[in-house]
Amino acid sequence: MSHDLAPAGFKGTRGDILVALKRSQPLTAKELADRFGMTANAFRRHLKDLEAEGLVGYSREVRGVGQPVFAYRLTEAGERLFPSQYDVVLSQALETVREKFGSEAVVDIFRARWAAIAKSAGPELALLPLPERTQRLAQLLSSMGYMAEAELNGHSTLREHHCTIRSLVERFPEVCAAEERFIREVLGADVVRQAHIAKGANCCEYCITERREMVSLGVSPSGLDRSPNQP
Asked: Are 64 and 92 in the same domain?
């Protein structure tokens, strides 16, 4: 199988598995092994790794007589690894916005998206101390396909191992500013980006610390749902 079809960042057997599942899922480990002339156990190891990353899932299926088999398929996050015509259309639309109204208008579109998420998550996060807010935010971002994790060791570190809009970021790097602002405001904390996928890092990493001046978060920690006339 050609590796050219594999998603960016996935080479060798892992990339081949993702492409094979994209083409004809669900597939068992044995069916994958038969396609590539390898042992089923070798593929189970790779499948387990992809499952841990949230890219592959499985279900038990009964196929004829005998014991049920484990059939693997791509998760939503796995599906998003493959570019779609939707990405192309959205990219062209954003390019038109930038040409007519400037880069800031593109950023505003993503700010509005993050603001809606902040407004929804705000009430829950406002009740938690910063480490737990960071942990809960990582879970929320993972549910959106970012493969996020929080490390709590003296200070909080948030890492995103996958960028769900990477193809857009390559053309519109300014939209990353909207994400950083969202994290800072929804957590009500000081946030410093220490690594950036768009600049070649393996993840986007944010160092998160308490603000020197404690701010009452109220119902919405981001404050993004306030009207311009509110303090």
From this structure: no
